[in-house]
């Protein structure tokens, strides 16, 4: 309800004539799509953010990104702390669920850290980006661009102000912009829980199982992704082929990091070979980590699924990671999230394949990008039909909330049964 309210407020503000450069009201569906994309930190756009929207409209989008990235409950807690209102037990329970915590112990302290980390990271990145952009534009504009892109990239939104839907392609070989933006995406994507764990490592001298899995899988996906993209695109003249070797490495790593729900790009996504595009679909589906600003099924869910396969192949009953055994409930939850996500993406892609006159890979790419709140596009979004825009809005909303959260909220509540049925046997495989 909180996210829906923010989206509707954003829609109303973006419909105002002052929000765009034409002086006319934006159509409701386009304003709704933009507000949904910003609040769900996706980055898919039906209007060119840099050219179409005025400074007021861009500021509205930036605020929506910040609200959506940090989460409705985090912002509600911030206002409660500012006005010195006591955080009730019910609020703490909701915060526990919103941050994917197993306990509500220290949850308000965690939210306070979330806000501090966000401001420090975004502020530092804004200064660095301002310094770089100042070489290409007036200083005041560079400051504005630095702040906007720091907020957008840390919250994994992918909105940019460079115009003509070109994202960061003008900085494909720029080390400073690439490294700062990749750092923002990774920090925003690993989750605030992991960030807090890493900051406290000097005192605790240990990391939680969650943090170990997230850090390991994040590093593995980035390295594997960069290698695969480098191999597939090395000779492609539309992407990496025209760059020197250093530029190829930098661009390959950037394109490996950004599908983890960020949405920025330094090469033309439509120019990638189909193998690379499909591989990016897989990276987008996996997404970021729990408690972060990103979407997807999450790195931990993907790790559990891999662990289940390995355990089955080795004939073991338990999934063991870093000398810890995972509870069966975690495995069922990971399986449920993965299957529900696949069902949503397949269903939406099938409907879009009948309403949009485009090839299936482009439609699958767009749908997965919306579900995983990534924002990468092969160029379909601005040309979507009315039904297509509504479906993508719904997919972005489901992806940001979490498909399991939405199912819990809308599904019937049933208690645990007081009996068990006799065990049956079924042939599998």
What do you see in this structure?
There is one protein chain. The protein has 429 residues and is mainly α. The protein has one domain (2-408). It is built from 19 helices and 2 strands. It has helices at 2-15, 28-39, 49-52, 55-70, 72-82, 89-98, 107-133, 139-154, 175-190, 192-199, 201-204, 209-233, 245-257, 274-286, 299-313, 328-355, 360-371, 386-401, 403-410; strands spanning 320-321, 324-325. A two-stranded antiparallel ribbon has the order 1-2. Helix 14 packs parallel to helix 17. The protein is globular and about 70 Å long. The two termini are 43 Å apart. The mean pLDDT is 87.
- Helix and strand element order: HHHHHHHHHHHHHHHEEHHHH
- In total, the number of domains comes to 1
Low-pLDDT runs of 5+ residues are: none
How many strands, what sense, and barrel or not for the largest sheet? 2 strands, antiparallel
Give the overall average pLDDT.
Answer: 87
Number of strands: 2
Based on secondary structure, the structural category is mainly alpha
Sum up the overall morphology in one term.
Answer: globular
Short description:
By secondary structure, the protein is an all-alpha fold. It has helices at 2-15, 28-39, 49-52, 55-70, 72-82, 89-98, 107-133, 139-154, 175-190, 192-199, 201-204, 209-233, 245-257, 274-286, 299-313, 328-355, 360-371, 386-401, 403-410; strands at residues 320-321, 324-325.
Any descriptors?
429 residues; 1% strand; globular
Task: Spell out the blueprint of helices and strands.
Blueprint: H1 2-15, H2 28-39, H3 49-52, H4 55-70, H5 72-82, H6 89-98, H7 107-133, H8 139-154, H9 175-190, H10 192-199, H11 201-204, H12 209-233, H13 245-257, H14 274-286, H15 299-313, E1 320-321, E2 324-325, H16 328-355, H17 360-371, H18 386-401, H19 403-410
Antiparallel strand pairs: 1-2
Helix pairs in contact: 1-2, 1-4, 2-4, 2-18, 4-8, 7-8, 7-9, 7-10, 8-9, 9-13, 10-12, 12-13, 12-14, 14-17, 15-16, 16-17, 16-18, 17-18, 18-19
